[in-house]
Amino acid sequence: QHRAAANAEHMADVEALCRVASKKNPPRKPPPPVEGAERAMLVALADFQLGKGEGDGSEGTVNRISAATERLLQRLADFKKLGRPFHVVYLVGLGDLVEGCSGHYAMQTWSVDLTRRDQLKVVRRLILQMVDDITDAGYRIVLSGVAGNHGENRNASGKAFTDWEDNDDLAVIEQVGEILAANPERYSGVSVYLPEMLSMTLDVCGVNVGFAHGHQIRGGANGAMNKIEKWWLDQIGGNQPTAAAKILITGHFHHFVCSEGGIGGRTHFQCPAMDPGSRWFTESSGKYSPAGLLTIGVGSAYGERGYGDVEIL
Question: What pTM did the predictor assign?
Answer without folding.
Answer: 0.88
